Amino acid sequence: MERLLIIGCGDVARRALPSLTRRYRVYALVREHGAALSAELSDELARFGVTRISGDLDRPSTLARLAGLADLVLHFAPPPEASNGKSGDARTRHLIAALRRGKILPRRLVYISTSGIYGDCGGALIDETRTVRPQTARAMRRVDAEAQLRRWGRTPGGPTVSILRAPGIYARGRLPVERIRRGDPVLRPADDVSTNHIHADDLARASLAALRRGRPNRAYHVSDDTDLRMADWFDAVADAAGLPRPRRVSRAEAEQLLAPTVLSFMRESRRLDNRRLKSELGLRLTYPDVAAGLVDACREP
Questions:
Q1: Which one of 24, 55, 117, 251 has the minimum C-beta count within 10 Å?
Q2: How many domains does the chain contain in total?
Q3: What is the value of pTM for the model shown?
Q4: Range of the domain at 166
């Protein structure tokens, strides 16, 4: 049985566990110090027979056990929130260095990136060949992570690297209901931007498909089929959750009322072409639009 290593045991990775553990012997890098490993996660990994490897991507000295461990790698860990004023992703650099020390190297590696690397595209429909123009520090770190992984993938003996560029990920517990309850406004139609979304279950399924069918150094948009403006997304969430729809304001008003991190998403507009996801990875979306996904996301547990 092939050995698979998960880096970043967040929501998407945990959704993939039932399928992964049927096919592979699964290992997971976990941070055991402090409160990083919850009892819930610990129990879940044990229930699925996942072998825990203690380590921290921010502490390279703890990653020695990764060398030669896995045939396949799912890299779901985000870059650090800050990189000492630099735009690079040190976590990905530390991971690659640790994996390259093994006598046996991974054959495949799948990385979840973000569609934020494109920056503002003026609402244009874009495919994966679009030039990246990141406009935020977090997107710059993602661009750096992609570049590091692709360089490794081009070296002799390097893995087949597949990059999944995901937009807004949603699911139960991952909806902006608190923002709606606070009464935060959204943009009026004249100022609004196009936005893209993917249900967390479909992103998990795309990761498995990339492990089997991803092409070398290939990027894929993991986005559903919905063509949506951001304010309409918030309206749809409000309706599904039984909440009042947010009020709509001009961009000038939003600049005065909203936090900079929220505003950063309102300054970028693009529509993602997902044909490569379907044609090359063969993925049939369980939730092809947000209407279907919100029914699941708002269902009582």
A1: 251
A2: 1
A3: 0.95
A4: 3-173+196-226+272-286
